[in-house]
Write a structure and sequence with these properties.
InterPro entries: Ankyrin_rpt, Ankyrin_rpt-contain_sf. The protein has helices at residues 6-11, 13-20, 23-31, 48-54, 58-66, 82-88, 92-108. By secondary structure, the protein is mostly helical.
Length: 110
């Protein structure tokens, strides 16, 4: 399917780097002005964080957040957030990190 095709990797480089856990590429793309919250319009408006979380790529998840990606944004069209993506695939380290992030975010907004 289209998943193996080269086209989507060129069209959505940040999602691809997130899926592969390529932290150096993520930082490079962000420094070139790529939006870390960009929505993949041909895949449920999924965001790079959802991809890094789905594949249990904790370092990529952290790198994306450092670039300005926001794990607390509303769910995508499939009804998923980075946390529910990580939970579905049972990536415990990523789940723990995102849960802790949510707790801290909730604490700082009080």
């Amino acid at each position: 399917g289209w998943f193996e095709g080269q086209g989507w990797k060129d069209k959505w480089p940040l999602h691809h780097a997130a899926m592969r856990g390529d932290v150096a590429r993520i930082k490079q793309l962000c420094s070139q002005g790529h939006d870390p919250n960009v929505k993949m319009t041909d895949w449920f408006d999924s965001e790079p964080l959802g991809w890094s979380a789905s594949f249990g790529q904790l370092a990529a998840t952290v790198a994306l957040i450092q670039c300005g990606a926001d794990p607390l944004r509303p769910a995508n069209k499939a009804g998923n957030t980075p946390l529910t993506d990580a939970q579905r695939e049972r990536h415990q380290t990523t789940i723990s990190f995102l849960e802790e992030y949510q707790r801290r975010a909730a604490g700082s907004s009080r």
